[in-house]
Amino acid sequence: MSKRDYYDVLGLDKNADANAIKRAYRKLAMKHHPDKNPDDPKAADMFREVTEAYEVLSDSDKRTRYNQYGHAGVDEQMQDMWGKGGFQDSHAFRDFGDLFGDVFGDVFGFGGSQGSGRGSDLRYNLQLTLEEAANGREVELDIPKHVQCDTCNGRGARPGSNPVPCKTCGGHGQVQMNQGFFAVRRTCPSCQGSGKRIESPCITCGGSGQRKINKKLKVKIPAGVYEGAQVRVTSEGEGGMHGAPAGDLYIVVTLKAHEIFTREGADLHCTMPVTFPQAAMGSEVEAPTLAGRVRIKIPAGTEGGKVFRLRGHGVPDVRNQGVKGDLYVKVQIAIPKKMSHHQQELLRQFAESAGDEIYPERSSFLGKVKSFWDDLGSEIK
Fold it and tell me: What is the largest CA-CA distance in the chain?
């Protein structure tokens, strides 16, 4: 039975790039993986077919030979790799293990190569006020973390002794698992991928190569930092295993709600009540900013909802150095809730003397209502 074209197997055209090839393989291999299809005897054959196609098309040299000569250009290598019903030697297994781990390590839990032992990243949630975020500040943090043991320099072995090869994996850091006719590799459960076993553990760290500390750090938070921003502090995460590099520390910023201002990017917004006389006759009022008070001129006849823009009174734009946002002040007409009898009488006299003529919007609305009623009455008759 002749083999199908590798491009047809993966559902690709001959111009597909490396990313498209990997995406197609991942999709099809997950679909046909024998572990996901235990009742389908054809799944293993399909999985082998898409894996073979990927192994050729993902390798630039093999792909060139395949494009020129077809299956004849790569069949010998494929035979060496697969053998008859399984892998013939450890070299072929390593080739396939690296391929398989590269694409499926995070899907099925298999690994194609040893982990670096790099320390884990740490996250610290830091809550700031709006003022602190706007101005920036230096914070002192107390971070619980694991660091390299000073006694054994992170090796885990007692000074004067050395780790020995792991008996489970023979020092390779991985063990072979047979699944049907093919095999995959996984990180060795005994040595966690290090390939070594400690017979004489360090008395300080017990063989872990690490010790727990609380480290005080001073970190400068930039001005203009926003909600959800992450400040990365390199190499201040957990220490690596057996001398490997440490992870990083990520400081995640959250902002406390402000009683006056809301924030949108580098801009600030607030609502400022003004009295009816101030809005009607015009006035100069004080408005709040993060830097203090500023005076705003309210023109006569200002309506509720009017927004005044104060340039440069927002917060610094952390992405554009030297640029600050604006402050938008929205006017709200304050309605008196409690008035004395004298005040009520004065307001009543004003209302009687003014009429609707001084309210253009109301006069216009009443005119439209009268016209609507007149038209409605005509239709009813």
Answer: 112
